[in-house]
Every structure is written in structure tokens, then in C-alpha cells.
Amino acid sequence: MTTAASQSELIDSLPTDLFIGGQWRPARENARFAVENPATGSELATVADASIADGDAALAAAVTAQKTWGDTPPRERGELLRAAFEKVTARADDFALLMTLEMGKSLTESRGEVTYGAEFLRWFSEEAVRIHGRYAVAPAGGSRLLTLQRPVGPSLLITPWNFPLAMATRKIAPALAAGCTVVIKPASLTPLTTLLFAQVLEEVGLPAGVVNVLTTSNSSEVMDPIIADERLRKLSFTGSTEVGRSLLKSASQRVLRTSMELGGNAPFLVFQDADIDAAIEGALVAKLRNIGEACTAANRFIVHESLHAEFARKLTDRMAEKTLGPGTDENSDLGPLISEKERDKVHALVTDAQKAGALIKTGGAVPNREGWFYQPTVLDDLDADAPILQEEIFGPVAPIVTFSTESEAIELANNTEMGLVAYAYTRDTTRTLRLAEQLDVGMVGINTGIVSNPAAPFGGVKQSGLGREGGFEGIHEYLETKYVGLPGPDATP
Ligand code: NAP
Q1: At what angle do helices 166-178 and 107-127 cross, to 10 degrees?
Q2: Whose CA is nearest to atom 31 of ligand 1?
Q3: Contacts of 343 (CB under 8 A, 6+ apart)
Q4: What does the pLDDT look like over 321-347, one tens digit per residue?
Q5: Measured from the CB, is residue 160 less than 6 Å from ligand 1?
Q6: Which of ligand 1's atoms lies nearest the C-alpha of 163?
Q7: Phi-psi region for residue 142, left (φ > 0), alpha (ψ -120 to 50) or beta?
Q8: Among 52, 243, 458, residue to substitute to test ligand 1 (most atoms within 8 Å of Cβ)
Q9: How far apart, in whole angstroms, are the C-alpha atoms of residue 289 and residue 106?
Q10: pTM score > 0.90 for this model?
Q11: C-alpha of residue 364 to centroid of ligand 1, in Å
């Protein structure tokens, strides 16, 4: 357990004002809002509560810095990102503790997120120097075709609370590598990690105005005018499909470039030829990583009828043995959910499923303790059309349904408006290829419960979003292709 003294020392050392144009400054009229520790429900800190005028100042700072940053040699941009990678890594314990305090996950998971989040800085530091155009002879000969990649320009980044560091670095790193300046608005539930990260960027010498941080409790009111402002060239959002839809509507008014990483509803398929013990290990990772609060969380366990009884029993036993407790306690496996509202939403999904006939094999209750904890829960005997199978649960709840044929399994997996990720356990190679081609998702995990990797393109199809983050693809979300037509070398001068 980290001590209360080390926790308050870290909290007291954090910047809590807005970071605009390289300056830490209070919000207009000194407005502030509170950040809570979900393990206790008590206040951790207060941060500046930006107004519309602060939003305008942040965008203005990003616009002012754009030309110089876009013209900064790629190697210099990359080296600043690399320095940020080193510094975040050196301060891994502080970032991990801070995320555990404001978001709730265990310290082990927070340390994992620091490694994952920092890696976007290293990956894109290396990509900054690999931005290429091309030169071609037109098919009919004669003219020449030249293409350049140019930074899109000032970008607005809006991030969710579930991965406070990684969702910020997954956007900031490619934007900066591409030569874009940014305004970032972290979730109001977890703004502290982004503020600490901005301090790291300041310390490594990032020029003023390249990254600006707006914390606000009035997201819609403060973001709308920025999205409507013609100086903004790009919106990158990670969050719920509902909010993503409404932001897309606003962005459409200006035909703004957008990237949308939205909700998921991942199927986890277990075929009759699976290694069942490996499938159970994968299921626990895919379900309980981040306390189930991940867009990539396995949301529906779709299990072949021949393995159903064994899978349900083993998953129930393993879920039931998890210890709930504050993430700062090294003995706890599962921290609290993010808020009382989210915890109540998860419980309502479970009670509704039970009323509709589901069998609760373990869990299913709100434990009697402070904080927003929820018992790890396994639901069995669900009908294929049970409403919970259409909802993103965002908590430690595992519903199980069965299938008898591969085509039925694929149909069940694809029966959702979401299409982020799917997991499958099978030892049949040809089945693997059929699944890779037929599952209607942006990412497939075969015999693994985790697919996230900074070197891979992360993103979804259908209502799970638009665009990709990470991998070679990630930087292209912040680049425009410009084409220059030229006469060929034989043209008369
Ligand atoms: P959310 O409610 O959609 O909020 C996401 C962000 O948008 C927060 O910063 C929020 O600010 C802001 N926001 C909310 N309403 C807004 C508005 N009208 N205008 C401008 N900004 C607005 O989502 P969440 O509850 O934080 O995160 C959970 C969701 O994120 C899940 O659906 C999950 O699947 C998704 N997610 C997707 C990915 C992915 O890569 N596909 C990754 C992680 C999470 P406030 O905090 O002030 O409300």
C-alpha cells in the first residue's frame, strides 16, 4: 500500500491550472471543480474550470504556434517526443499512482498503462522522420505527379477517463510528430494525469502553445465554440458513441477532419477445438483489464455448447476469487468503478438481465463498503437476444451465451451496431482465416485476450468509429496529402 503521505505529496506537487501558450494560469473568474477518488468518494484535488473565453485563448495559442511547429525539422519534433518518453518512464511510479488515485485501477494495471502510454511517444518519435511523399510519371507519360504530406493544423483532442495517460499520448504523439499543435480536453473525472503529462512536456522544452490543456466541467459549452471556429482543422475524440455522434454532427457544419474512437461490444468466441484453460486466462484479461472499463473489454462470451458447462464453471470460479479493494492496496485485484452513476448503471444491467431469465453464477451485487465497487459477476443461460448483449457493460460482468455451428457464432458476434474488436479461441488455422475475414470489426485477437499495441492500428468499424490510432496509420490522421502536377522534363520551357 502506498502511504497517505506519499499520495498527498504527489497530489500537492501537481499543476492544477490551465496550460495555455506555455503558461499555467487560472480559469477566468478563478472557477475550479473537484476531482474525486472513486475508491473512497472523497475529494482528491480541485482543478481550473475553463470557460468559453479560456477555450478561445487555448485555440489562439495553438494557432499562433502552428506555423513554427509545422516548420520545425521532423528530427527535432521526434527528439522532443523521445525526451517525453524518457521522462514519463522515469516518473512511471508517479503516473501510476496518480492514475490509480483518480481512476481507480490497481497499481499493477496503472504501471502497465504507463508502459503502454509512454510507448506511443517512442513510436511516434520514430515515425516523425518517416513522413514521405511520392513522385510518379503520369500513366500517359509527359506530366509528373508529386505528392507531399502536410500537417493538418491545429487539432482539438477530447479524451475519456478510462485510460488517462494512454488516451492522451495516443493522440498527442502522432499530432506532434506530424507537425500539428493541439488543444487537449481530458475527461472531467480524470484531468490530473493530463496535467502532469503537460508538465513533463514543458520540462522537456516543448515550445509554448504546441500543447494546451483545458480542464472543464462544462465540456459541451466550452468545446462547441472551438469546434465551430474556422481556425480549428481537426477533431480527434475518444469516448462514447452517443457523444461521438453529436460531435460529428457539429463537425459536419465545418466539414472538419475527424477521428472517432467510440464504444465497443466485443464478442469473445470459444470454439470446440479451443484450449479451454488458455481461453479462461484470455477471458479474464479481456473481461477484467481496467475493471471491465475498456472499449476493448469482452462484452459477450459466445461459447460452443460442448464446452459451455466447463467454461462457465471455470470462469465463475476464477471471477469469484478476485479481491476487491482500493487500487493502491497491492493485495487488491479489482478497484472501484469510476463513479456512483456508472456503478449503478452496471448493477441495473445485471438486475434487468436477471429479470429476463439470466442466471447469476457469481456476484451480481453492490458490496457494502465505501467507494464505487462492483462484484465480479458471471451471467449464464442468456437468450441470444437478451438486451444486455446489445449494451456496452463497462464493468466486471461476463454474460455467456452458447452456439452450435461456426456460422451461428459469427452471426451472433456480428449482431451489434458496434465493431471495434473480437476475440476468438480456436486451434484451427483455416477457421482463424475465416474469422479474420468475416468478423465485422476493426481488430481481431486470436488466442489472446488483448490486442492493444502502440505499433498496431487501433480502431473500429460500424458505430465504433472512424480512423486508426497507433501503428503506421496513426500519423496519417494528422496529415493532409497535397498533390502537385508538373510538366515532365521533356516539356518545352
Ligand atoms: P464520454 O462521456 O463520451 O466522454 C468522453 C469525453 O468527451 C470526455 O472528455 C467528456 O468530458 C467529453 N464530452 C462529453 N460530452 C461532450 C460534449 N457534448 N461535447 C464535448 N465533449 C464532451 O465517454 P466516457 O464515459 O468518458 O468514456 C467511456 C466511453 O469511451 C466508452 O463508450 C468507451 O467504449 C469509449 N472508449 C473508446 C475507446 C476507443 O478507442 N474506441 C477507448 C476508450 C474509451 P466530461 O468528462 O466533462 O464529460
Answers
A1: 10
A2: 240
A3: 336, 337, 366, 372, 373, 374, 395
A4: 999 999 999 999 999 999 999 999 999
A5: yes
A6: 43
A7: left
A8: 243
A9: 10
A10: yes
A11: 26
Distance 294 CA to ligand 1 centre (A): 12
Q: Which atom of ligand 1 lies closest to the CA of 185?
A: 9
Q: Reduced to 3 states, what is the DSSP secondary structure of residue 343?
A: helix
β-strand 298-304 against 234-238: which pairing, if any? unpaired
Question: How distant, in Å, are the alpha carbons of 11, 28, 54, 159, 188 from that of 48?
Answer: 15, 9, 10, 17, 10
Q: Work out the number of other CB atoms within 10 angstroms of the CB of residue 240.
A: 15
Residue closest to 113 by CA, chosen among 335, 384, 430, 298:
335
Which strand (E) or helix (H) includes residue 33? strand 32-37
**Cβ(238)–Cβ(209) under 8 Å?**
no
Active site residue ranges: 261, 295
Checking if the pLDDT of 172 tops 60, the result is yes
Q: Which residue has its alpha carbon closest to ligand 1 atom 41? A: 261
382 CA to middle of ligand 1, Å? 29
The Cα–Cα gap between 8 and 13 comes to 8
**Do residues 235 and 251 lie in contact, with contact meaning Cβ atoms separated by under 8 Å?**
yes
- pLDDT given at position 69: 98
**How far apart are the C-alpha atoms of 396 and 401, rounded to whole Å?**
17
